[in-house]
Amino acid sequence: MKIRGAKVTVCSPGRNFVTLKIETDEGLSGLGDATLNGRELAVASYLSDHVVPCLIGRDPFQTEDIWQYLYRGAYWRKGPVTMTAISAVDVALWDIKAKALNTPLYNLLGGRSRTGVMAYGHANGRDISETSDAVAAHLDRKFLAVRAQCGIPGLPTTYGVPKGEGPYEPAEKGLPSEHVWSSEKYLLHTPKLFEQLRVTFGDDLHLLHDCHHRLTPIQAGRLGKALEPYHLFWMEDPTPAELQEGFRLIRRHTTTPIAVGEVFNSVWDANLLITEQLIDYLRMTVLHGGGITPMKKAASLAEMYHVQTGCHGATDLSPITMGAALHFDLAINNFGIQEYMPHTKETDEVFPHAYTFRDGFFQPGETPGHGVDFNEALAAKFPYERAYLPVNRKLDGTLWDW
Ligand code: CS2
Ligand code: MG
């Protein structure tokens, strides 16, 4: 079998997605997601202008060699644009391989290691009572794990909290909006949220929280310690992770489990975090982590150091990534939990998928490949629309992390 061609499509059924379809001379095709939130067109060009011409004529079964060719062969390594593009190719090739062998992808990754994939949903609210209502709504849907975020008194907007009615979507159309941030106000308020949630919902529910990289290591240590009585499943992205050693300080101060890595694009972003056991969950997923090929290796390294996975699953990862991630989650031994933010109805129609969610767990489905399709004719009705994540500033105007 040979790769005959590949096509990149950018569409916006509710939000922007970049999709790669690789076709073979035997009529089989595979799909990969190449979406990089707010930088979509850069990856589309990287693929069509620089990668697709190099794929023609290659054997799609050579997932390892093609991955190395695109990673080592380019000279320029890592970076979100490069790794997202490589991931799209890698996931599409694994999809072709599994389809050619007429088996669901998880069978090529080790087979079933569990009966289902536990997922957490997002409960957001402008205040504690609204967040509490959102947690209750998740319990009605039988979620076993819920991430809770809430507005901070004295701050006009909070990332993760919707402005109006309707589901929360991180990217906003047009140029980036700006949010105001105060770590001091946040640190005072957040423990009150979890105190109330434990009083209302008891001890069984898994509660998670995302700090969006906004704390210094010592502040993160303080928050983790303050949250210990409420035994969180994890505290996510407490601090930016360019300096992996920074997590030593957090670890020294708290037993609250730590998750990090949704912006990582290589195992080299986490090598110290893993080998020094500074984190409990690695958030990197197939899309931004370079594909199934390197994620298998990162998970194997993590397994040796008591680190589990907790794949990113926000709406800016297309259903193709969700499908591929669920096969990966089902197969590896050190899976922890999968994030789940439901896509819009339009997105689900453009990407019909075999995966299903019931009673807190996902099933990837038994369709050969990763089980996610792409309706190109429908996608053409939703052209690209410029959109960005908001930018975050402290009260005095200093640009800050998120
Ligand atoms: C968040 C995301 O899902 C998460 O944990 O951090 O909303 C994230 O900010 C976006 O996916 C960024 O593209
Ligand atoms: Mg996050």
In short:
By secondary structure, the chain is α/β, with parallel strands linked by helices.
Task: Give a topology summary.
Blueprint lengths: L2 E9 L5 E8 L4 E5 L6 H16 L7 H9 L8 H21 L16 E9 L2 H13 L4 E6 L21 E2 L4 E4 L1 H19 L4 E5 L6 H11 L6 E3 L9 H8 L4 E3 L10 H5 L5 E2 L9 H13 L3 E2 L9 H13 L6 E2 L5 H6 L5 E3 L2 E3 L12 H4 L7 E2 L2 E4 L4 E2 L2
Parallel strand pairs: 4-5, 4-13, 5-8, 7-17, 8-9, 9-10, 10-11, 11-12
Antiparallel strand pairs: 1-2, 2-3, 4-15, 6-16, 14-15, 17-18
Bound molecules: D-mannonic acid and magnesium ion.
Write a structural description.
This protein is 34% helix and 18% strand. It is α/β, with parallel strands linked by helices. The longest helix has 21 residues, at 80-100. The mean pLDDT is 97. The structure holds D-mannonic acid and magnesium ion. D-mannonic acid binds next to loops.
Record field, number of beta strands: 18
Give unreliable regions as ranges. Answer: none
Q: Which secondary-structure class do the elements indicate? A: alpha/beta
* Binned strand content: 15-25%
- Compute the number of helices: 12
- Summed over residues and divided by their number, the pLDDT gives a mean of 97
Biggest sheet features = 10 strands, mixed
Shape: globular
Distance between the termini: 45 Å
- What does the radius of gyration come to? 20 Å
Instruction: Report the order of strands and helices.
Output: EEEHHHEHEEEHEHEHEHEHEHEHEEHEEE
**Distinct ligands:** D-mannonic acid, magnesium ion
Q: Helix content range of the residues, please?
A: 25-40%
Please, what is the oligomeric state?
A: single chain
